[in-house]
């Protein structure tokens, strides 16, 4: 771990610059991707990536240069490129950062069970092959895949003010998916994949529930194929955590990103229906809604001690009892807006600059068991596992779809329905939150695929949530 | 004539050939870029930087087994050779652990492809000056990306491909004080300050329409014109598994009913993968020359995009698709509607410049949802009345490009990808606009 640190430190110390501040962010990342599809092992894929971003602040103007040439001359050259660019844009720049505070802390952060050795490749493939082979023989089961992704990241941030922040993290992404088709309609069920990932060792695979799940997942895909469409109309909506995470992500997370509110993302990811003046004022949701930025749940995907700009991370309430308190804004956004934020300035790698990102964005548990949540619903529907997501550029009008639906009548779960979709408006939806599940319904989930930024970045984010009930939501099915 | 990038790649290929053991085969892909990225907000530079990056994708094959490793390359040839050796070592340790791969298929032809287009890149100082002079009074937000992009491929069967192009892509929006915005783009290989200024001026003129009072529509079915940029969003959804041989064979394609013949589109709809003449490399990352493929002909499913792996699994002839089996240069045949007649033919309805954030509400039915974004106008009697507040649509492709399609435009737009996930992308699409009798708005 941190094998490059001594050399990086030495080379950073030898860099020469006229800038009032400069920094180096070195990222070394390796990845292994395994899968077995329809009982055939796909070719394994490995990757090794390493490089550094040099950032300068010259008379209050910042610019960066990213390079994979980590030699002394390569780093010096990148630093000079960044300086030259900072000079070139001076006079055309939006932000004067001369007065922005500079971090100078030294700290190491390490994922839970980082040093635990994992099963070897053959054993991992055997596990996936066993799961794949457990899918029953049924001509309607046309596709299935068991997969396992593992990513190791080591990052070192050094700056000319003396900061040295190091992260060593391991991420595990198990997955299983089965598709059933009758030739005209198709229905899929999945476990993990884009809806699950955690930091840690092999215990993450156990927590995901991958082992022994294939038969159940296949059976659920077949049930969906035979199920009627979701009926249209207003119903109470019970969202399980693997759909809540998407709901949180799209209609709380993105609209609270301060760089969107400040307009940086208007050409691509979009803007926000939230205004700077809403913080401390807006009743975002019902009094049952408590939303936290929480980097302290060890296994959650975006738990860390410091963000990529060197700001210390701590748990903060963004929304408490429904009232909007603070944005997802890192040090730069806080400097620009004058609002208190969180440590969420993050980059997806050495070749992209940090921007405001979601990290771990969670809903705090309430006080009702799943049984109580269901009993409290007279005419409703349970939905689980996101499969479709669409929301406007201000993050207000949304339409989401799930893999699995189950009607609820008079406090009891009834039949399975396919193509469960629902739509609403963020600014109103959270005010319909009528019940929040307790810790027995709480799951720590996350996704590796949050896209944003120009140039584009895809990053890991964590979402933990209990099951939640929303009153009178517009639900509907598909055409088939 | 070779370039420094190509020389580095060739040196890596030579080192690989020397290091190969008897019985081993390889494919080696190469990606590189030297990019300047400059973000603008309020017509000022919000964030600026340069990225120099290169990587290789080594696939090692032996005795019916294969594994692949991607690794970063730098400027140090000796270090790059060491990284190659490390990758070879890991792959050699991996192959004996794998079962035989029944879908392994290699292109054993010694094809050659070479393309270098290196016109002078824009003078960035000129770009900054033009933005300040001509957009300084506007709320411009967006990104300027420019520099060389390289793609390479070599195999132990002596296949060799090289693609290098200097290009720029300035993608921006102009915002009105009322929050409405118009999107514009200037991309290509040869920068012209006059052309850029003309695009900016056009966007400025459209901005004036956005200052009119905003019109709010109720859900329902509306006549609509979808401009090429809006059509590009729909085409992007189809590219997401629509033409993939694997997706079509396993119930995961939104076009499965089209390809089984259960459904059809309007006979005027013909999609093709038109690699020749596009800005994409003429070879896939899998190591096959890409072919032009007629995907949908006169409204009916025709050929699929078939990767080497799918060719074996589904017993289909391969056609140069990469493993994702997505088109890189999707083209939709033009229609007869003249650009000058669009508003008159629309008469009363929606003029939609762009769509946003599409996804499927019912994938097998090709039913998709999404939103209007950027310069969507309400038109009455062929006259623009004002901008429309954001609306959601939810409709089937079999309606939009089938029963409800009234006409496609004669003029098409070549749309170059602005995607920079991981690296600057080389994809493009060539699309007309579409006039539809009914588009279902839901929210």
Describe the protein in words.
The complex is a heterodimer of chains A (480) and B (443). Chain A has 480 residues and is an alpha+beta fold. Chain A has two domains: 5-226, PmbA/TldD fold (2-Layer Sandwich); 233-476, no CATH class. In chain A, 20% of the residues lie in helices and 38% in strands. Chain A has ten helices and 24 strands. In chain A, strand 18 and strand 19 (412-417) form a beta hairpin. Chain A is globular, with a radius of gyration of 24 Å. In chain A, 59% of the residues are buried. Chain B starts with a helix and ends with a strand. In chain B, helix 1 packs across helix 2 (77-94) and helix 3 (124-135) packs parallel to helix 4 (193-210). In chain B, strands 8, 9, 10, 11, 12, 13, 16, 17, 19 and 20 form a ten-stranded mixed sheet that branches. Chain B has helices at 4-19, 77-94, 124-135, 193-210, 228-239, 245-249, 256-260, 308-313, 342-346, 397-403; strands spanning 24-41, 44-62, 65-73, 112-117, 139-155, 160-175, 181-188, 220-226, 271-273, 293-297, 300-301, 329-332, 349-352, 355-362, 367-372, 376-380, 383-387, 392-396, 405-416, 428-441. Chain B has 443 residues and is of the alpha+beta class. Chain B contains ten helices and 20 strands. The longest helix of chain B has 18 residues, at 77-94. Chain B has two domains: 4-210, PmbA/TldD superfamily (PmbA/TldD fold), CATH 3.30.2290; 220-441, no CATH class. Helix content of chain B is 23%, strand content 39%. The chains are: A alpha+beta (480), B alpha+beta (443). Chains A and B meet through strand 2, strand 3, strand 4, helix 2 and helix 3 of A and strand 1, strand 2, strand 3, helix 2 and helix 3 of B.
């Amino acid at each position: 771990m941190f094998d490059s640190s001594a050399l990086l430190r030495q080379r950073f110390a030898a860099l020469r610059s006229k800038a009032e501040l400069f920094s180096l962010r070195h990222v070394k990342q390796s990845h292994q991707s395994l899968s077995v599809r329809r009982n055939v092992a796909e070719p394994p894929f490995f990757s090794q990536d390493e490089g550094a971003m040099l950032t300068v602040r010259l008379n209050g103007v910042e610019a960066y240069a990213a390079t994979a040439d980590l030699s002394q001359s390569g780093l010096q050259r990148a630093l000079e490129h960044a300086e030259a660019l900072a000079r070139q844009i001076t006079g055309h720049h939006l932000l004067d950062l001369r007065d922005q505070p500079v971090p100078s802390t030294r700290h190491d952060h390490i994922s839970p069970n980082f040093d635990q050795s994992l099963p070897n490749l053959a054993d991992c493939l055997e596990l996936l092959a066993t799961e794949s082979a457990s899918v029953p023989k049924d001509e309607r089961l046309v596709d299935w895949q068991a997969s396992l992704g593992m990513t190791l990241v080591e990052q070192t941030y050094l700056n000319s003010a003396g900061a040295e922040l190091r992260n060593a993290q391991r991420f595990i992404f198990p997955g299983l998916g089965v598709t059933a088709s009758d030739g005209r309609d198709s229905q899929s069920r999945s476990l993990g994949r884009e809806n699950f990932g955690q930091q840690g060792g092999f215990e993450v695979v156990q927590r995901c529930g991958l082992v022994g799940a294939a038969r159940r997942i296949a059976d659920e895909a077949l049930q969906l194929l035979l199920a009627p469409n979701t009926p249209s109309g207003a119903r109470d909506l019970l969202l399980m955590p693997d759909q809540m995470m998407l709901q949180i992500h799209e209609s709380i997370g993105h609209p609270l990103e301060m760089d969107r509110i400040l307009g940086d993302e208007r050409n691509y990811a979009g803007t926000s229906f939230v205004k700077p003046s809403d913080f401390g004022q807006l009743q975002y949701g019902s009094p049952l809604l408590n939303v936290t930025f929480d980097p302290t749940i060890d296994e959650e995907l975006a738990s860390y001690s410091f963000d990529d700009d060197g700001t210390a991370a701590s748990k903060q309430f963004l929304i408490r009892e429904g009232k909007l308190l603070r944005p997802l804004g890192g040090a730069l956004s806080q400097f620009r807006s004058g609002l208190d934020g969180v440590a969420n300035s993050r980059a997806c790698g050495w070749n992209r600059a940090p921007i405001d990102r979601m990290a771990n964005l969670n809903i705090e548990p309430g006080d009702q068991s799943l049984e109580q949540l269901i009993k409290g619903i007279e005419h409703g529907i349970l939905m689980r596992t996101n499969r479709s997501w669409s929301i406007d550029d201000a993050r207000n009008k949304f339409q989401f779809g799930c893999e699995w639906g189950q009607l609820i009548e008079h406090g009891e779960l009834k039949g399975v329905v396919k193509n469960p979709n629902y739509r609403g408006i963020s600014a109103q939806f959270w005010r319909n939150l009528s019940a929040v599940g307790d810790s027995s319904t709480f799951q720590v989930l996350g996704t590796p695929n949050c896209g944003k930024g120009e140039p584009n970045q895809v990053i890991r984010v964590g979402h933990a949530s209990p099951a939640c009930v929303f009153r009178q939501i517009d639900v509907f099915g598909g055409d088939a | 004539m070779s370039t420094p990038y190509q020389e580095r790649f060739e040196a890596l290929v030579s080192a690989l050939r020397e290091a190969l053991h008897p019985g081993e085969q390889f494919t080696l892909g190469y990606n590189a870029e030297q990019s300047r990225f400059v973000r603008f907000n309020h017509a000022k530079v919000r964030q600026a930087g340069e990225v120099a990056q290169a990587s290789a994708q080594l696939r090692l094959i032996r005795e019916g087994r294969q594994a692949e490793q991607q690794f970063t390359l730098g400027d140090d040839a000796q270090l790059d050779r060491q990284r190659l050796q490390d990758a070879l070592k890991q792959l050699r340790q991996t192959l004996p652990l794998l079962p035989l791969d029944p879908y392994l298929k290699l292109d054993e032809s010694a094809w050659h492809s070479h393309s270098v287009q290196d016109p002078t890149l824009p003078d960035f100082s000129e770009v900054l000056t033009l933005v300040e002079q001509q957009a300084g009074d506007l709320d411009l937000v967006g990104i300027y990306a420019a520099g060389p992009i390289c793609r390479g491929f070599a195999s132990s069967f002596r296949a060799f491909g090289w693609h290098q192009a200097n290009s720029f892509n300035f993608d921006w929006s102009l915002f009105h004080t009322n929050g409405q915005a118009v999107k514009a783009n200037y991309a290509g290989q040869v920068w012209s300050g006059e052309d850029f200024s003309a695009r900016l001026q056009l966007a400025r003129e459209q901005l004036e329409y956005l200052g009119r009072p905003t019109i709010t529509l109720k859900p329902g079915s509306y006549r609509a014109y979808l401009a090429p940029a809006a059509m590009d969003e729909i085409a992007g959804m189809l590219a997401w598994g629509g033409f993939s041989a694997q997706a079509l064979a396993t119930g995961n394609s939104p076009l499965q009913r089209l390809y089984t013949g259960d459904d059809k589109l309007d006979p005027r709809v013909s999609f093709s993968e038109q690699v020749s003449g596009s800005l994409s490399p003429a070879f896939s990352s899998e190591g096959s020359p890409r072919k032009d493929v007629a995907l949908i002909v006169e409204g009916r499913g025709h050929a699929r995009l078939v990767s080497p792996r799918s060719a074996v699994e589904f017993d289909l002839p391969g056609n140069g698709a990469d493993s994702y089996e997505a088109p890189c240069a999707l083209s939709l045949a033009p229609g007869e509607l003249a650009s000058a007649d669009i508003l008159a033919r629309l008469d009363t309805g929606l003029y939609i410049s762009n769509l946003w954030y599409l996804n499927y509400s019912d994938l097998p039915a090709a039913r998709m949802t999404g939103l209007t974004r950027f310069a969507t106008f309400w038109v009455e009697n062929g006259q623009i009345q004002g901008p429309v507040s954001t609306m959601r649509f939810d409709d089937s492709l079999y309606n939009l490009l089938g029963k409800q399609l009234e006409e496609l435009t004669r003029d098409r737009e070549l749309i170059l990808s602005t995607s920079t996930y991981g690296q600057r992308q080389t994809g493009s699409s060539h699309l007309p606009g579409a006039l539809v009798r009914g588009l279902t708005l839901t929210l």
